[in-house]
Amino acid sequence: MLIFLIGFLIFTILLLFIITSAFLGFLFTRVPFVPTGGADIEPMVKRLGINNTHQVFELGSGNGKVVFLIEKYTGAKVKGFESTLWTHLWAVIKKYITGSKAELVYGNFYKHSWQDADFLYMYLYPPLMPQLAEKAKTDCRPGTTIVSRDFPNSHLNQIDYFKTPSGHEMYVYQI
Ligand SMILES: C[S@@+](CC[C@H](N)C(=O)[O-])C[C@H]1O[C@@H](n2cnc3c(N)ncnc32)[C@H](O)[C@@H]1O
To answer: Does the predicted TM-score (pTM) go above 0.90?
Structure first.
């Protein structure tokens, strides 16, 4: 009985933590956590030509799935920025379980430099596009490739477009 009560208490605390942190994250970013499908990553990295000489940054890396899979398929150096605490912590736990070398940064990606990225991956939201383009043009080196899932960014120079196996649209830009 005691074990059951302790288990129930831990479960309730965890659930409250996730709900509160998801709510606060959404209040701050206005972008809900919606994960990219894992099956879309391998075709994407092949199409983009990402390899182990590249650095890939993910803006809003959620549970880390995308950075872990890009690292696994390409050997690229990967870095994710995430401001919702529960998804960030979940990603950190997965990093230690899997032995990934991904760098996971907790915080607002606008407050960090994107200068070292060869590729920027994002699955964000249309109202953010002007500010994302402005920061990319200021921070990124010429030649940096930017990939936006589902939402186009008319403020950037588009070089490619494709659909993933799950039917999602991928917009590819270059600085
Ligand atoms: C639609 S989810 C995508 C998650 C992950 N990129 C994926 O594709 O599986 C967008 C994520 O971006 C995060 N996010 C939005 N704006 C952010 C910001 N300014 N700084 C850090 N993270 C942000 C949200 O918290 C959310 O987890």
So the answer is: yes
